[in-house]
Amino acid sequence: MTRSMDLFRLDGHLALVTGGAGFYGTPISRALAEAGAKVIIASRSRERCEERAAELREAGLSCAAEQFDMGDPNSIRALYARISDTHGVPDILVNNALLRSPTHYDEATPEQWAAALQANVTGIHICTGVFSAGMRARRSGSIINIASIYGVVAPDFRIYEGMDFASPPDYPFHKGGLIAYTRYCASLFAPDGVRVNCLSPGGYYSGQSETFVERYSARVPMGRMACDDDIAGPIVFLASDASRYITGANILVDGGLTIR
Ligand SMILES: NC(=O)c1ccc[n+]([C@@H]2O[C@H](COP(=O)([O-])OP(=O)(O)OC[C@H]3O[C@@H](n4cnc5c(N)ncnc54)[C@H](O)[C@@H]3O)[C@@H](O)[C@H]2O)c1
Predict the structure, then answer these.
(1) Is 130 helix (H, G, I), strand (E, B) or coil?
(2) In ligand 1, which atom is closest to the CA atom of 75?
């Protein structure tokens, strides 16, 4: 039997984190790299990804940067071709990127709505399709989809009163759908040794106003917003052999917000 803590190691593994330079993407990339993986950070901005990758390399970790557009199927296919030619087929794919849309119910134009669904639904499907094909051929891999509490419960709009942001109306379509899509892919890919799971985080503290933080935290049984360390353990768990018999799961990383 393998020693339990060794199951969490990712040495020799290659991970791709889409949107890896953002609020959640940054601690996700760091956690995977600290567990031993070589991490590729990819988003629309090569410059931001390079900055994050350089920070991780300065910390002695293995990291590279790539540019791509989730809204463009050809760009996703080209990303896969570049990564597989240069580094090999990733062992871990984290579908984390999010194209943000206007946050108030009646603000998004049909074009903005379509662009959000193109990147956040079709883009995730294409990305999962091209990367899983390589994983399935090799008969191993772990795909982790980053959904949200708002794929499970509705926002309490009272906490957004007077704020210049809220949760956008397209969000429940792609986050709720992503949780169901995770189960679909988990069932389809399981015979080929590829696991697919979901993490549904709660609100991340990113400098919101004191009023918002108080209102949000009052709804959380654990009494606070999420921070970097909260996502680190769950992502390494799902990426590694520590969760080797788990597929199709949706783990809520929300301080208990959705339990009552
Ligand atoms: N921040 C939160 O409170 C929170 C809560 C629950 C779930 N989440 C989820 O966590 C994930 C990351 O969110 P975040 O808050 O870190 O967001 P963020 O805006 O900080 O990062 C999103 C990343 O996606 C990239 N991106 C956007 N459009 C893209 C495109 N077309 N092609 C390629 N990359 C693109 C951006 O460049 C950025 O790096 C999302 O899936 C989000 O739904 C976030």
Answers:
(1) helix
(2) 32
Q: 168 near 102, Cβ under 8 Å?
A: yes
Which residue has its alpha carbon closest to ligand 1 atom 28?
A: 99
The sign of the torsion formed by the CA atoms of 253, 175, 46, 185 equals positive
Q: Specify the amino acid at residue 127.
A: C
Ligand 1 centroid–CA 160 distance in Å is 19
Tell me which of 18, 24, 148 to substitute to probe ligand 1's pocket, judged by most ligand atoms within 8 Å of the beta carbon: 24
Looking at the domain 4-259, which fold is it?
Rossmann fold (3.40.50)
CB 146 within 8 A of CB 175: no
Residue 227, token pair as written in the block:
């921070």
Q: Render pLDDT for 194-248 as a digit per residue (tens, 0 to 9).
A: 999 999 999 999 999 999 999 999 999 999 999 999 999 999 999 999 999 999 9
- In this prediction the pTM is 0.98
Q: Which of the listed residues 47, 98, 145, 254 should we mutate to test ligand 1's pocket, taking the one with most ligand atoms within 8 A of CB?
A: 98
Instruction: Answer whether residue 104 shows pLDDT above 90.
Output: no
